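About this split. The held-out portion is used to measure sequence recovery: a designer receives only the structure tokens and must propose an amino acid at every position. Recovery is the fraction of positions where the proposal matches the reference. Here is one held-out target exactly as it appears in the evaluation file.
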């Protein structure tokens, strides 16, 4: 039997992680899809384990001593991959053909599969709705949301010509407080740079 399950980032990385881990470990033939809008949006923009560093949410509010969420995103793709499952992928609504390819690949494989799709929430991220595709594309192109696959544990990554993280942050109200804060901006650039290094995202100069 071929099955699919889906949940949000809060339902996946926090509330349902125990059940998800059991599902992955027991080898069920299921494609699990996490729609990652980076907070508990239905209940009022509370932070989840997949909320990015320094994001302004109702449970990680900015203030005199706070620049937002104090923790980086939980490495869910690596946590899923650590279960030794045959397929793990991240995707983005800015790259629909890439989503289609990955879903087709996932459902052709027997066993547990984990997919995590980056989907902006204009209300929670505080950007105009017509910027949705631009915002999600920029997350990928800065290295903040790497598009990766693990096929039987082997990493495949979509290459980028990295753009500075400000290009992504400046589009969204949830990061507005950072734009005049070079110290925090550097911390976020460091996260992108570490992703670029870890997943080998950068195109080589010759093919750029
Ligand atoms: C086990 C359980 N705990 C809490 C809730 C209450 N609840 C309903 S929607 C929601 C937000 C879930 O956030 P997320 O999974 O990120 O999905 P989003 O709303 O962002 O799409 C919560 C906590 C619930 N339905 N079930
Ligand atoms: Mg959510």
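Reference sequence for scoring:
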């Amino acid at each position: 039997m071929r099955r699919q399950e889906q949940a949000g980032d809060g339902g996946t990385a926090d509330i349902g992680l125990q059940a998800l881990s059991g599902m992955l470990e027991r080898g069920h033939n299921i494609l699990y899809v996490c729609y990652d809008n980076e907070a508990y949006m239905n209940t009022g923009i509370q932070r989840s384990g997949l909320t990015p560093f320094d994001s302004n949410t109702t449970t990680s509010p900015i203030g005199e001593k706070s620049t937002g969420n104090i923790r980086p995103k939980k490495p869910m793709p690596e946590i899923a991959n650590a279960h030794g499952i045959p397929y793990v992928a991240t995707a983005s609504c800015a790259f629909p053909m890439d989503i289609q390819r990955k879903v087709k690949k996932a459902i052709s494989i027997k066993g547990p599969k984990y997919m995590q799709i980056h989907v902006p929430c204009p209300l929670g991220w505080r950007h105009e709705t017509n910027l949705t595709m631009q915002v999600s594309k920029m997350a990928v192109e800065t290295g903040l949301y790497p598009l990766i696959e693990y096929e039987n544990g082997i990493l495949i990554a979509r290459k980028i010509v990295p753009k500075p993280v400000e290009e992504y942050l400046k589009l969204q109200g949830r990061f507005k407080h950072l734009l005049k804060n070079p110290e925090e901006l550097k911390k976020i650039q460091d996260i992108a740079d570490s992703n670029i290094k870890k997943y080998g995202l950068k195109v080589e100069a010759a093919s750029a």
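Annotator remark: The mean pLDDT is 96.
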